[in-house]
Design goal:
The complex is a heterodimer of chains A (about 100) and B (about 350). Chain A is α/β, with parallel strands linked by helices and about 100 residues long. Chain A has 3 helices and 5 strands; from the N terminus they run ββαβαβαβ. In chain A, helix 2 links the parallel strand 3 and strand 4. Chain B has 3 domains: about 100 residues, 2-Layer Sandwich (Transcription Regulator spoIIAA); about 70 residues, Phosphorylase Kinase, domain 1, CATH 3.30.200.20; about 180 residues, Aminoglycoside 3'-phosphotransferase, Chain: A, domain 2 (Alpha-Beta Complex), CATH 3.90.1200. Classes of the chains: A alpha/beta (about 100), B alpha/beta (about 350). At the A-B interface, helix 2 and helix 3 of A face helix 4 and strand 10 of B.
């Protein structure tokens, strides 16, 4: 799992599809990094994510419950459609991918 | 150009592409249809429209000047994007086309009185409603369920309204888990832990505030019920119930309204609510009444109900209810008796007796 820590912001770079086949592994990877602490905000960079299923959405819900300042950036149109459909635009801050 | 006129609602069906070439002839055709029909409401159905350009948007804008409540329905995602980008969606009602799903080969995983649940893929299910349900009603419920979810009430993630053949359905996330009922019955050793979680969930629901004007007020609903059963009630009971309801404090906290342990799922030790159809706001006493009903009241009116509905004896159902209540509220014996009689009064007066009365009449 690629990530960086800058200005107390921990950014994860997720890739490909996030579904019930890999969500658990992704969550474990994220948790390992979260254990390091020393950050105030969590950002998921979804630039290279083409699909997210409910198993992936659950990761976002859990992160938001633990870290109030959780946001999603570089969200593609198709992923945004899903996030909008499930009402997540009212749950976390979402920034779309610049075309 | 195809159109239909029904109950003074004129629907015009646009096809193909609405661009600078086709805009003028299409606009003229629309004008002709509009001029030769008498109607109160105008709808443009874009199901067969693949593309719309600014010239096309201008036609709609012009129509809107004459018919301010014009509606656009069945827009494809691409066409909807154009409406959204240009700000049309905040100016007029534009509705996306419902996604179509094929359930003919899907596995049936649940079967209810009003709906059938199919598994669409590994992560999603669709609940297809048996009767022709009201789309607006489903949409409203869905929006409220999403709002509850965002406010922190743990529920299954809901997606969109879809069409399965000629029936309507709603997509949800697949919860790969068991109901709280199964969890409690199969892990008797963890019963207390699950019941504590059950109580925590009830507290979370009944303390989360929602100020959405769309959400129904359960007190109003009970007042309506009371009026309906008035002819079958002795006047002193009617008056008593009315006073009781009137004196109940108005609250803006959620009431799930059907929070028994078959409507709760356990996923990774987290309890999640399903079936948010009865969500409303009001005093938590209504929640307690709706819990009292399936665990105790139904069986009193209909012996054997606990076995049939929950698969447990009526004694066990009662014990479960008592435990939940004792964990939820610290009570003296006398206040316990008072609360119980209040719940019986609210529930039986309002709902259960009513169905009994109406079936007997």
């Amino acid at each position: 799992m690629e990530y960086n820590l800058e200005n107390q912001t921990l950014t994860f770079f997720l890739q490909g599809e996030i579904n019930s086949y890999n969500a658990e592994d992704i969550e474990k990877d994220i948790e390992k990094v979260l254990a390091k602490k020393g950050f105030k905000a969590v950002v998921l960079d979804l630039k290279d994510v083409c699909y997210i299923s409910s198993a992936g959405l659950r990761i976002i819900v859990k992160l938001k419950q633990q870290y109030h300042d959780t946001s999603l950036v570089n969200v593609s149109d198709s992923v945004y459609h899903v996030l909008e459909m499930v009402g997540f635009e009212n749950l976390v801050k979402i920034t779309k991918l610049n075309k | 150009m195809r159109y239909s006129l029904e109950n003074k609602v004129l629907t015009i069906y646009l096809q193909g592409e609405l661009n600078s070439y086709s805009a003028e002839p299409m606009g003229e055709e629309i004008d002709k249809i509009v001029a030769s029909n008498e109607f109160d409401h105008l709808i443009l159905d874009l199901e067969s429209l693949r593309y719309i350009s600014s010239a096309g948007l201008r036609i709609i804008l012009k129509l809107r000047q004459t018919y301010p409540d014009i509606e656009v329905i069945n827009a494809s995602l691409e066409v909807y994007d154009v409406f959204q980008m240009t700000g049309f969606t905040s100016m007029m009602s534009v509705k996306k086309a419902l996604r179509k799903v094929d359930v003919s080969k899907a596995e049936v995983i649940g079967d209810g009185f009003f709906s059938t649940v199919y598994r669409l893929d590994k992560d999603t299910i669709v609940k297809v409603f048996e009767r022709t349900s009201d789309e607006e009603q489903i949409e409203r419920e869905l929006r409220l369920a999403k709002e509850a979810f965002v406010l922190g009430v743990p529920t299954a993630i809901s997606y969109d309204i879809v069409k399965a053949g000629d029936k309507l359905g709603v997509c949800f996330e697949m919860l790969d888990c068991m109901s709280l009922k199964t969890a409690i019955l199969t892990n008797k050793g963890r019963c207390k832990e699950y019941l504590d979680k059950y109580v925590a969930l009830l507290k979370k629901i009944n303390t989360t505030e929602c100020f959405n004007p769309l959400i129904p007020d359960i007190k109003k609903y009970y007042f309506e019920k009371l009026e309906k059963i008035k002819p079958y009630l002795e006047d002193k009971y009617y008056q008593k119930l009315k006073t009781l309801l009137t004196n109940l404090e108005d609250r803006k906290t959620f009431v799930h309204g059907d929070c028994h342990f078959k409507n709760i799922m356990v996923q990774n030790d987290e309890l999640l609510l399903i079936d948010m159809d009865t969500l409303s706001v009001g005093h938590p006493i209504f929640e307690l009444a709706a819990i009292y009903a399936p665990y105790c009241a139904f069986n009193e009116d209909d012996p054997g109900n606990s076995e049939r509905f929950f698969g447990i004896s009526s004694e066990d159902a009662k014990k479960l209810y008592e435990t939940v209540m004792n964990t939820l509220i610290m009570m003296t014996k006398s206040s316990k008796i008072r609360l119980k009689s209040l719940l019986i009064f609210i529930w039986c007066g309002g709902i259960a007796r009513m169905s009994q009365i109406t079936t007997n009449v």
